[in-house]
């Protein structure tokens, strides 16, 4: 399924949740659903799941949804065990698997086509584990997945869709962090 179409499905399911997204999925998500509760984690490759865990533990009353990349998660596989051990019910982890480090030149990830991310999450102890390869199936199941108690994990087998601009200036700006901080403070007050 195309990443941008999957993100449009998610846009219709997301309200005031915190979304932690990385790299190309972040750029696409910012264009599709710009909002102040988008936590900008680019520049910390491999750390989306850890940042999401920290946000979920610090904000137990709010859902945290992580849009991770397969290459990014490979750099921090230990986070799967940490997340499952902490068992935050408000944590949903979606891995957009395309087999490449897309923003870094589309180089193949190690183990491309052989790595079983869903199997690793299940073995780590995530409460719910799903794999989606078809947009229609994902459209029918996305809301239910996001409403299931976490920690929940889903692999989305994707291909690039409509290319969106890569606004590195914004994602590395103090403004991005300040907007998120203010939105989180307002939402928690």
Task: Please describe what this structure looks like.
The protein is of the alpha/beta class and 189 residues long. The chain has a single domain, classed as Rossmann fold (3-Layer(aba) Sandwich), CATH 3.40.50.970. The chain is 44% helix and 19% strand. A 6-stranded parallel sheet has the order 2-1-3-4-8-7, with helices on both faces. A hairpin with a 5-residue loop joins strand 5 and strand 6. Helix 1 packs across helix 2. The longest helix has 15 residues. The radius of gyration is 15 Å and the shape is globular. The termini are far apart.
Task: Write a brief structural summary.
The chain is 44% helix and 19% strand. With 189 residues, it is an alpha/beta fold. It has one domain (3-188): Rossmann fold (3-Layer(aba) Sandwich).
Features:
single chain, 189 residues, alpha/beta, Rossmann fold, six-stranded parallel sheet, two-stranded antiparallel sheet
Shape: globular
Structural class: alpha/beta
Outline the biggest β-sheet: 6 strands, parallel
- Count of beta strands: 8
As laid out across the biggest beta sheet, the strand order is 2-1-3-4-8-7
Q: If helices are DSSP runs of H or I spanning 4 or more residues, what is the number of helices?
A: 9
CATH class: Alpha Beta
Radius of gyration: 15 Å
Let me know the average pLDDT: 89
Query: Based on the structure given, which CATH architecture is correct?
Result: 3-Layer(aba) Sandwich
Separation of termini?
A: 39 Å
Q: Approximately how much beta-strand content do the residues carry? A: 15-25%
CATH-assigned fold name: Rossmann fold
What is the fourth-level CATH superfamily?
Thiamin diphosphate (ThDP)-binding fold, Pyr/PP domains
SSE order in H/E notation?
HEHEHEHHEEEHEHEHH
Tell me the domain tally: 1
Low-confidence stretches: none
């Amino acid at each position: 399924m195309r990443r941008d179409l999957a993100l449009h499905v998610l846009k219709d399911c997301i309200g005031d949740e915190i979304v932690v997204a990385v790299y190309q999925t972040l750029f696409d998500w910012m264009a599709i659903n710009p909002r102040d509760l988008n936590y900008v984690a680019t520049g910390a490759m491999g750390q989306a799941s850890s940042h999401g865990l920290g946000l979920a533990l610090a904000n137990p009353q709010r859902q945290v949804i992580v849009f991770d990349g397969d290459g990014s998660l490979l750099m921090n596989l230990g986070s799967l065990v940490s997340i499952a051990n902490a068992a935050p019910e408000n944590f949903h982890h979606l891995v957009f698997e395309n087999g490449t480090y897309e923003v870094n030149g589309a180089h193949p990830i190690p183990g491309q086509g052989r790595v079983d991310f869903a199997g690793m999450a299940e073995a780590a102890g995530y409460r719910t584990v799903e794999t989606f390869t078809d947009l229609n199936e994902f459209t029918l199941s996305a809301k239910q997945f996001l409403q299931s108690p976490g920690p929940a994990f889903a692999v989305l087998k994707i291909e690039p869709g409509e290319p969106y601009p890569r606004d590195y200036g914004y994602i590395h700006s103090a403004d991005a962090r300040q907007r998120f901080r203010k939105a989180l403070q307002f939402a928690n007050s």
